[in-house]
Amino acid sequence: MFAGLYLVYANKKVTMQIHYLTVKKTARFFTLGTLNPQTKEVWFVLHGYAQLGSDFIKQFEMLVNDERFIIAPEGLNKFYTRGFGGNPAASWMTSEDRLHEIADYMEYLQQLYESLQINADRVKVILLGFSQGVATASRWLAASKIMFNHFVVCSGEIAAEMQHPIHPALTKTPVTYITGNADKLISSEKLQAYVQLMQSIKARMITFEGGHIIDPQSVLQAANIEFAQ
Fold it and tell me: What are the DSSP E strand ranges found in 84-174?
């Protein structure tokens, strides 16, 4: 009897359904400097694919002074760089279930900002993204009500949905584009198209000798750019 029931069940067409459950997750972020009444600039620096916030933030030590505070949020997704081994790393998202991935990190970044209780009337807020972190940062720039004073794009691409048409946030916020002249992750054709995009939004452009990296001197140069109020 049981075998017959099993056969009938096995021949039935079963439809898989997708379900979602919102859960609490602990996020991690790293800081350099001190957020205090003397702080004049707060920098949010978003790492690229397969990096950790703890390693990434070390590349911004040259920015730190009594008036700057640096924050490196870390992507919510962790994995090993070599399958089942290698160094742990993080990413902001993949193409799988991408809209929920985006919603999750947007909520995370916004909560982080609000938890710091930044006085936007006296503190400039700078947003920097590197590689995959550029798309993440650009989406936050577009969706948030935060008035970022400067968006620094380092060796990465603004989210595609913000390019065609150009999102108003990209024309309302001063943008600086930093790229290496030997970045193997971007073809000459794509670079040319991207430079045209940056020119269309009147972004300042800085090119350095090197590849797909954070160039400290270029970041310092971007930090010292003065914008009309």
Answer: 85-91, 124-130, 150-154
Nearest to 133 by CA among 45, 13, 47: 47
pLDDT at 85: 83
- Domain ranges in the chain are 24-223
The b-or-e profile of 101-134 (16+ CB within 10 A means b, else e) is: bbebbbebbeeebeebebeeeebbbbbbbbbbbb
Structural contact between residues 218 and 206, judged by C-beta atoms closer than 8 angstroms: yes
Quick one: DSSP state of residue 78? E
Picking from 107, 110, 75, the residue whose alpha carbon sits closest to that of residue 93 is: 75
CB 149 within 8 A of CB 121: no
Q: What is the mean pLDDT of residues 126-140?
A: 98
pLDDT tens digit sequence for 154-189: 999 999 999 989 999 999 999 999 999 999 999 899
Is 156 in contact with 131 (CB distance < 8 Å)?
A: yes
Query: What type of residue sits at position 179?
Result: T
Can you identify the CATH homologous superfamily of domain 24-223? Alpha/Beta hydrolase fold, catalytic domain (3.40.50.1820)
For the range 184-188, what are the long-range contacts, defined as Cβ-Cβ under 8 Å and sequence gap of 24 or more? 184/211, 184/212, 185/131, 185/155, 185/212, 186/155
Instruction: Return the H-helix or E-strand segment holding 177.
Output: strand 175-180
As separate numbers, helices (DSSP H) first and strands (DSSP E) second, the chain gives 7, 9
